[in-house]
Each structure stands twice: as C-alpha cells, then as structure tokens.
Amino acid sequence: MRRLSHAYLALVLAFLYLPILVMVVMAFNRSALYELPFTFDLVWFKALAGNERLLAASWNSIWIAACNAVIATFLGTLAAMAFARYAFRGKQLMQILLFPPITIPWLIIGTSMLIFFFWTGIGRGLHAILLGHVALSLPYVIVVVGARLQSFGPALEEAAATLGATPVQTFMRVTLPMIAPGVVAAGLFAFAVSFDQFVISYFLAPPGTSTLPVEIYTAIRKGFTPEINAVSSIIIVISMGLMLAVARNYRFGGE
Amino acid sequence: MALPPRQRVEVFALTAPAYLWLAATVFLPLVAMVYFSFLTAVPVGGRTASFTLAHYISFFTKPIYWFNAWRSIELGIYVTAISLLVGYPAALALSRHVKGRWREAIFLLIILPFWSNALVRTFSWTMVLRQPLNLLFTYPAIVIGLVHAYLPYAILTSYISLQAIDESLIEASRSLGATTLQTFFRIILPLSMPGVLAAIFLIFVPVIGSFMEPRILGGKDAIMLGPIIEGQFTAAFNWPLGAALSFMMLAIVLLMLALAAPLLRRQLGSS
Questions:
Q1: Which of B237, B221, B220 is nearest to B229 (CA)?
Q2: Tell me, what's the ipTM?
C-alpha cells in the first residue's frame, strides 16, 4: 500500500511538472520548429534580448506588480488590523465581501471592469490594470496578515498603550515587528498575483501597451516560436521562486 | 455592538481605503455590467442608447447560446470529476503514507504550480500535446490543460480535510474489525466530504469562466460561453450582448452555489 502510494504521488508530480520541463528544454533547443534531436543553443534567449515589445511589456509587468504589492499590502494590512482588533457591526458582511473578487470568474470581473472604466472615463491602460490587480490582491493580503494578527493577542499592544504609546507608535514598534513575516509574505504574494495575472490585464490593456502575459498570449495566438518558450521559462522560474519565498515566510494550509 | 465614536472613526479609517477600492473596481463594475446588458449600445461619445431586453431574449431563444452554455457546464463537470478522481487518492496517499519533511516537501511541490503562471502552464501543454500525441486543438486537450490547472486545488482541499481527521477514529474502526475498505467508506470519506465539496466549488466556477485555456489548447473546439463572451469584447465589439452573457454566466455560477448551499451547510454543520 505504501509503495503504491509513493508511486502514485510520483506519477501525479510527473503530470504536474513534465509539460513545464519540456517547455523549458525546448527553449534551449536550436530548431525553430521544435524539431529533435536536441541541440543546445541560447539563440532564443538572445532573440528575446532584442525583442523590444517583450522587453517593454516585461518592464510594465514588473512595475505594476511592484506598485500593486506596495498598495495592496498597505491597504490590506490596515483592514486586517480593524478585523483583528475591533468588534463592530458589519464586520462579518465585510469579510464575506472579500470572496467575490477572488471567486467570481476573472472573465466576468475583467469585462465588467472594462465596461465601467470605459464608461466613467478611467479608460484602459496601465493605471486601469493596476486598479484591477490591487482589487484582486486585497482579499489575499487581508487573510494572510489577518491570520498572523490573530496568532498574537492584543495583550502587547494594550501594554504599549497603557505605558503611554500613541496608536501609531504602538503599531510601528509593537504590532508591525510581530506581524512582519505575514506582511512580507502578503507583499510577495500580491506581487506574484499581479505578475501572473492575465485575464484582467488582457481586457484592460489598450492596443500597443501591455503586460508580459498579454504579450505572450498575443504571440501564442499568432503561432508558437521557441522565443515564447524562452520568455515563458524565465516567467515560470520567477513565479515559482516568488511562491517559494512566500512559503518560507508563511506556512500554507495543512498543519 | 455600538462602538464609542472614537473607535468608530478608527475602524472607518482602517477599512475605508480597502473597501472603497473594492467598491470602485469590483462591485460598482458588476452593477454597471447589469445596467449595460439592458442597453442597445454603449452610451459613450454622444451615442444614444435605449432600454432593451433583446440580449436576454436572444440568450433564451437562440440555441447557439444554450448550446455554448451547456458546453461550458459539461466542461466544468468533466474537469471537476477528473481532478477529484485523480486528486483525492493523491491527497489520501500523502496524508496517510508519507511522513514528516517529505510530506511537507511534496505538499509544497503540488501546490507550487497552482500559484505560478497559468498562461505559461497552459502554453507548456502545447509542447507535449502536438507531437506525437496529436491532441492539440481538440476537446481532450482543453480538458487535460484545465485538469492540470486545477488538480492542485482538488489535492489541497482534500488534503486539508483528511489531515483534520482524528487518528483515533480510524484506529477504533480497525480494532472493531472493519476492513480497510469499510474504514475508508464509513469513516474517512464522510469526514473528508467538506474538502471534496470545497474542491467541487473552487474548480467548477473558474472552469465555467475559462476562455484562455480553450483558446490556446482547443483551437476550433473552443466552443463555449467563455470564448464567446471574450469575442464580444475583443472582436465583435457588442459590449451589451457580452455584458448580458457575462451576467448569465454569473447567474449560472450563483445558481450552482444556491443549489449546493443546503448540502454545504449540512456538511459543515455536521463536522
């Protein structure tokens, strides 16, 4: 039974990682048509370095993800403080309202953002994409930071207040150092949510400007080239690296 | 729970920024979408628009939309069922037959792809499915790609609820003479039901709303509600129709949730 279980888990992991591995290997293959036998070559990464569109899109993606991480972490931490440290009417409703942004299909959220932003004059563009990404990241930040806040009671904060610290002092000197790992994890997570987000960006990107996933999608629709493999390989490494960093700072589910 | 005024101000100051942001980017747009779905055109740039039920009438009378909506639901059923059939045994194997550091490492390896880039993962399947399998641009390709995308969810939620089962219940069942199968069907499976139901909801909903995976892997077989809605916004530019279809998709999702609610409540209440 034990042997069988281990073999089965190995199979599942192979299913999850095999296609990614093939994609990465093909990025280093010389043939433009993915032909075998495999000949190692960096030609596609070199081509990537000269692709202005992809470079501009990469820069947009990183810039938006960074702004998103800062804004969502800041606003989310404030809200998490209110949930963890105050009892007030409407708290439960406000917590339930965190579910729609992450459970309603992105297609519906994205198209309704497009309609609304267009109608109100906010329009499409990198600013609109940032607006949308923050909304998707906020619920995660509030949950991750909230869990960390819950694990420390308010006792130390009350002690600080009794000793004469102002609320801001209490937060900066007592609360923030305690919840720092949660805040860092939430920030990295928000960065990853934005960096990997495709659907919302796709609807909010105007012609000519876009983020990396949107640019890759357009390229895929035009036809596959090993250049897409190269840029995708870089993305998957960054994206998985970020999540490993989150996992180091914060333990997911399970135990 | 009336708070003193000072604290009320504090709560407001802490929560208002985040919730105003959510209102402006998620909740108001959803309301706007419903409003637009009853208009003849997009009222921008001096164009006039009038009230109409035409888009909803087309949804309910034109077989093409019914057909596509059904194709989306069918895809959701396939992907959810396969993900659970593959994922539940994996969660069981992990929770019962792997110990300590290995268990943590494998758990992390399973959820890692889930939190990584979905578009890139979908693209990676085009590498495997083209040759020699020759499955690219077929319906099975869409199913495989989506199962790959959501399998970690099935494993994650099943694993969490399996993990929470009290070991002494299983030992008691064994010492009272139950076979392994009996223990599984009478103790383990019923107690892990909340995780299974969570997986069903968490997989079914996004699959119904998927359009990128069908487009990349399905080619001409991407005949579903998701790609049709996408087309209204990016190719046909019939936004009001797109809004009506989006709203019908949301209605399907909410209906499924409403149907599942009594079941969920009973499951969560009993455990």
A1: B237
A2: 0.90
